[in-house]
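Posted in: Protein Modeling Q&A

I'm a second-year student putting together a small comparison for a lab meeting, and my supervisor asked me to include a predicted structure for HD/PDEase domain-containing protein. I've never done this before, so apologies if this is the wrong subforum. The sequence is pasted below exactly as I got it from our records. If anyone can share the structure token output, I'd also love a short note on what stands out.
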Amino acid sequence: MTEWRLRFLNLSHAPSSTAHILFPIILLRLLLSIHVGPTEMSSPTSAGVLQTHQLMENHSILIRDEIYGEELVHEPVLVELLQSPEVQRLQGICQHGVTGFLGLTPRVTRLEHSVGAFILVRRVGATIEEQVAALLHDISHTTLSHVIDHALSKPGEGSYHEVHKTRYLETTRLPNILARHGINQNVFDEELFPLVEMLSPQLCADRLDYALRDAVSFGKLAMEDARRVVGSLKAFPSATATRRLLVLDNPHVALILSRAYITTDKDVWSSPAHIDMYQRTGQVIGELVEAGSVDDKVLWQVSDAEFWTLLRQAANPEQLRAIERLEEEGIPEDNGLRLPHCAKIRTLDPDVWQGGEKQSAPLSIVLPTWGSERQQYILSRSQH
Ligand SMILES: *[C@@H]1O[C@H](CO)[C@@H](O)[C@H](O)[C@H]1NC(C)=O
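Accepted answer (user: helix_wrangler)
Welcome! Here is the predicted structure, written out as tokens:
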């Protein structure tokens, strides 16, 4: 309804020459709105490349994800978190930092990824705590995502957003929201939730969602194969067992996923060309934060687009030239660029559980050829 009021207000300011064009359009939309289902309160908003959210009249939220399909969320704590400024902030943050922001790669967002990880654990029957842990696992991410690691992380340190998580959380109302709904604060420690986080190369919701979302968006995995992976997903031995694990019940599907993961790693996550852009952006940001021209608190307060404007304003002529090179030249040729020592080589060895078996086993055991394929990839990358 608010939208309607706004439209009529706009009309009163419109020059009379356009009013006669606008009026029939408004009338048409008014008539159309009568046919909109009574429980649809607002139109869907984009959460990123593959996902929309829609607030319904009964205060539930309908999530539509191209990979996962529809998920209706009605639990008050989840509805409140999904609408909180802290979670919504992640819509303005590109999963792939500078390359995503500049439109050189698909504009996958931290919001759709966080909600995707949440949907995955929800689908296998995780507790509400584990669902919240999945939704909030990236909540302390800064603008431009991992680009900031290249700007501000000290050697040997974890990701910047993880190191500064507690400091960030203290500035938010999230602890208060959780307390009001009786949710334990330990959900901020996602490592306590094995369906959400597991050491590489095992499967977990965080790793699986970014794998599917990136592999599909970058054209490394067919949508129907991504959906088969989701259809093959289970929590083993159960979603509430202490030693619970995300597994796939089909080795063939697990192999398709694991191969797509390696291809995406080679061409995207550990691509020397992408890392080169991260480093050059990181250098400018590092210099500006060091010099006090950009306050590091801002990293949690602005979107990628707002931050880029700030950088341009604060940059000296040399830094501005570096920024303009990034904008104009785009992703450099991979040839000749070396893989930096800090680069993480990512592979997957998901656990497979075929109904009836007592134990799950890594794909490399079920299918030993995968074990050697995976080793070969690691070797080829470390010789790069
Ligand atoms: C809220 O509305 C949706 C969409 O019409 C419906 O599917 C859902 O069951 C409703 N939820 C509740 C809790 O009434």
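A couple of things worth pointing out for your meeting: The longest strand covers residues 51-55. Residues 274-329 form one domain.
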